[in-house]
User: Which sequence fits this backbone?
């Protein structure tokens, strides 16, 4: 079947993996990557697919309702996979307005643009049933307790399920929660064929190096301090980014309209244990003695409102659609650390800001 899709935020971390997967797997689709290229957007993430005939990059802001409406209509878009967002909790603490604008108003603008074109057509474009697929986070559910702080994971007795009540704590998660509500409201009010997924922390290649894993690998390599918030006891549930992209593909094509699916790897780690693993693996891959860089660990003031534990129950997704993660964490971490060490040029460009100048220039010249 031919389809015309918009993937928003395709130049970001997860979005670039989703674009790559769709461009490679569906040569018969036309894929438009709509991205504003904020500090987090980097077209170097998509170098390997940028010349494919089924791929087009469109520089634009999801908040610009009129441009998005025209883009949807002119390209007879039948599916939207929405990843564009401000995504870093620490930035949201400093600048909550930007998060409300992009994550809430941006999502609303996309929904409205899609509705304008789709509703009069009965939510079918040229015979293809429309889909608005919104990518969200487990952080909307709030925080879980550490009822088993010692020993092995899981570190608590409960998990986030699709029925867990929303209870966001950070400006980031509050904005994502609000956007989730708008998506569901468009289904309930206008019959928009929506799907929402809430995923746990992702890791893997092309993540902006202000997030824990790429930041720390880069710092270990350069022998810079590793700022661990609080005592490093917070627990996150980690999923390899390509497994998330596979889940998005499956759910976009086979998920049920109006449903929510949680995506996670049943893979809880305390931050301090992740940090020690990163040091061990990075040291080994750099030919240093394993653990040689342990003294880079620096405990710093905790993040305000720092959620203690996230843990996703993804049973519904595996039971109904047969998805499961493909990688064990040890394997995924090794692959990830190796990628950052082998792609130093990418890291250097991103940390210096050069990637933005280069691509601005390239697109001006086209
Ligand atoms: P990211 O910050 O790496 O990328 C975000 C992308 O969105 C960038 O390319 C940026 O340029 C683009 N963007 C930002 N504002 C825009 C705007 N106004 N208009 C158009 N494009 C804009 O984010 P990520 O980590 O890849 O996360 C992608 C999505 O997945 C987000 O919605 C996030 O909430 C969700 N999510 C992320 C994780 C995670 O661990 N990273 C986990 C669960 C869910
Ligand atoms: P992060 O990658 O920012 O993801 P999120 O806040 O969305 O879970 O952080 C992952 C965990 O690592 C989180 O508990 C905060 C912690 N952290 C640090 O301890 N130091 C750091 O420098 C960063 C960026 C994160």
Assistant:
């Amino acid at each position: 079947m031919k389809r015309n899709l918009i993937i928003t935020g395709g130049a970001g971390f997860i979005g670039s993996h989703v674009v790559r997967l769709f461009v490679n797997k569906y040569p018969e689709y036309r894929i438009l990557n709509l991205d504003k290229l904020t500090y987090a957007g980097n077209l170097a993430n998509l170098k390997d697919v940028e010349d494919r005939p089924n791929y087009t990059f469109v520089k634009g802001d999801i908040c610009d309702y009129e441009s998005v409406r025209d883009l949807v209509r002119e390209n007879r878009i039948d599916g939207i996979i929405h990843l564009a967002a401000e995504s870093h909790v620490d930035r949201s603490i400093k600048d909550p307005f930007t998060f409300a604008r992009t994550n809430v108003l941006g999502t609303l603008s996309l929904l409205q643009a899609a509705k304008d074109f789709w509703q009069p057509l009965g939510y079918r474009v040229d015979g293809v049933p429309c889909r608005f697929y919104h990518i969200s986070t487990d952080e909307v559910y709030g925080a879980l307790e550490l009822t088993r702080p010692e020993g092995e994971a899981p570190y608590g007795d409960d998990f986030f399920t699709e029925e867990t009540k929303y209870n966001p704590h950070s400006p980031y998660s509050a904005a994502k929660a609000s956007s989730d509500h708008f998506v569901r409201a468009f289904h309930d009010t206008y019959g928009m064929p929506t799907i929402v997924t809430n995923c746990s922390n992702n890791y893997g290649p092309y993540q902006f190096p202000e997030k824990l894993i790429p930041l720390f690998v880069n710092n270990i390599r350069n022998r810079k301090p590793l700022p661990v918030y609080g005592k490093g006891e917070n627990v996150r549930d980690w999923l390899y980014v390509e497994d998330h992209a596979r889940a998005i593909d499956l759910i976009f094509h086979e998920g049920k309209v109006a449903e929510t699916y949680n995506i996670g790897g049943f893979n809880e780690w305390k931050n301090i244990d992740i940090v020690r693993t990163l040091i061990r693996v990075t040291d080994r891959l750099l030919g240093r003695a394993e653990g040689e860089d342990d003294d880079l660990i620096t405990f710093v003031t905790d993040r305000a409102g720092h959620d203690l534990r996230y843990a996703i129950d993804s049973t519904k997704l595996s039971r109904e659609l047969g998805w499961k993660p493909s990688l064990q964490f040890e394997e995924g971490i090794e692959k990830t650390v190796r990628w950052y060490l082998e792609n130093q040029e990418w890291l250097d460009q991103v940390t210096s800001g050069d990637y933005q100048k280069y691509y601005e220039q390239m697109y001006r010249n086209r």
Notes: The pocket of nicotinamide-adenine-dinucleotide (ligand 1) is lined by residues 8-9, 11-15, 35-38, 40-41, 61-63, 83-87, 102, 106, 135, 137, 176, 199, 201-202, 208 (CB under 6 Å). The two ends are 31 Å apart (CA to CA). The CA atoms of residues 100 and 151 lie 39 Å apart.
